[in-house]
Amino acid sequence: ERVLDRGATAVAHPNIALIKYWGKRDERLIIPYVDSLSMTLDVFPTTTTVRLSPAAQADSVTLNGTPAAGEPRQRVIAFLDLVRELAGRTEPAAVETRNSGPTGAGVASSASGFAALAVAGAAAYGLDLDPTALSRLARRGSASAARSIFGGFAICHAGRGVGAAADLGSYAEPVPVPEFDPALVIALVNAGPKAVSSRAAMRRTVETSPLYRSWVISSKADLADMRAALHRGDLEAVGEIAERNALGMHATMLAARPAVRYLSPATLSVLDGVLRLREDGVPAYATMDAGPNVKVLCHRADAARVAETVRGAAPGCSVVTARRGPGARLRMGAE
Ligand code: PMV
Questions:
Q1: Same domain, yes or no, for 141 and 243?
Q2: Pick from 296, 262, 36: which is nearest to 148 by CA?
Q3: Atom of ligand 1 nearest to the CA of 197
Q4: Are 155 and 232 found together in one domain?
Q5: How far is the CA of 204 from the centre of ligand 1 (A)?
Q6: 35 touches ligand 1 (CB under 6 Å)
Q7: Pick from 98, 184, 236, 274: CA 20 to 30 A from residue 84's CA?
Q8: How confident is the model over 77-134, as pLDDT tens digits?
Q9: Which of these three, 128, 160, 176, is where a domain ends?
Q10: Predicted complex ipTM
């Protein structure tokens, strides 16, 4: 307890959405337009320590050992302000984050980052929150972070209404399918930071893309189909639905004005490889987020073959095979 008085360390893993979140109906509260459903991974954890520093003048934020500046720093400070408001506290904090995966490359670093910050920040400031409340809090950092509070598969509700009602209704919860344990082969075709932030790209899509509304509608049907497929443990259906939902999301961006295009030639080569695998009878399905990297869902027994195909399709890319991973948690006594 005395240790938690001064600081807390949390670990969280990224998640990859099989039904995507894209677009906010409230930018301040970070309320999505659509429900989303994801798999939390067992790779690329983020470890975050929040230490209260009552004597300091301001918060300090370091990312992988380097002082953070600009927008990333501002987002962490705004998040701490929210935690302090909820806790009725005012002391500044020192935040140290280590991200073992690529940052800002469409591999969900903001999901693991804000999930870890929510868990560590709540503990450091003495807030006793249940997982639903932690998920709601993490959402205020990045909506995808709401899902990384939970391990395995999780659904994030977009919530209804506006203001406080929307805030209350928008959180993630687990989708209990313990026997569904596929592989996700991640092809890092470009691990550098993205050219357009997902935040800016979403706003442009919502405001200018004539395809956005129809994707929101089809996404509802995709989610219902996805839940049924997950409960059946039907990898082929899960993969088909995830792939069509992701391609539809990218179509909304391509139709934005000006277009947002995250997919690169290497992305398309990997997608061709995935098609060849299916032609050869290997169930493999692709999903892409706000970046060129491709995540390929397949049976664990096929993961090595899928990884080999992906490497051949995009020479020089690095390939990491993930499985379902754990939810965000406090690390005791490891400051
Ligand atoms: O929460 P953000 O800003 O990292 O949004 C990311 C959204 C996608 O990764 C593209 C889709 C999703 O649901 O994770």
A1: no
A2: 36
A3: 3
A4: no
A5: 15
A6: no
A7: 98
A8: 999 999 999 999 999 999 999 998 766 555 668 999 999 999 999 999 999 999 999 9
A9: 176
A10: 0.97
